[in-house]
Every structure is written in C-alpha cells, then in structure tokens.
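Re: [ENG-882] Designed sequences occasionally contain unexpected residues at chain ends

Forwarding the minimal case from QA. Structure tokens:
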C-alpha cells in the first residue's frame, strides 16, 4: 500500500518526466551509473598505484655494493691548452 508521501512524490516525478523534450537525448540513470563505475575504478587504480609506488626503492647502490647516498662525481679532466 502506498503512502500519501510516496504518491505525491510519484505525481511530481511523472509531471517532470512529461516536461522533457522527447527529441532530446540525455544520459539518464544508466549514464550516471557508468560514469560512477569508471570514477570508482580510477580511484581504486590510483590507490593501488600509490601503494606500489611506496614500495619502490629509488636509492642506487654505490660502487662498493652498499645502498646509501649518491657516489661522489668523478673530477672532470681539465681541457688541454696548446
């Protein structure tokens, strides 16, 4: 059995549905659901990417095999003047 509130809401919804142009194409509920699913998938992918990026170790090992600060740069040879 429908309550008075649901009947009133349904009556307003039906009148709104009749005011739309029948020749105009709108995305509707299905378009919103697809957009929401794509947005959720992107959010989950970004969350997973951040998790994997935190595990990456960017420090390069030095010549003696230990990880640490960058190795000192080799001195550039001086140009010859003749």
């Amino acid at each position: 059995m429908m309550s008075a509130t649901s009947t009133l809401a349904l009556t307003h919804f039906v009148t709104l549905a009749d005011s739309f142009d029948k020749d105009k194409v709108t995305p509707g509920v299905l378009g919103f659901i697809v957009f929401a699913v794509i947005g959720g998938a992107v959010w989950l992918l970004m969350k997973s990417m951040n998790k994997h990026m935190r595990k990456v170790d960017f420090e390069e090992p030095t010549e003696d095999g230990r990880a640490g600060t960058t190795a000192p740069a080799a001195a550039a040879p001086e140009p010859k003047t003749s």
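QA comment: On inspection the terminal residues look reasonable. The CA atoms of residues 72 and 78 lie 18 Å apart. Proposing we downgrade this to a documentation issue.
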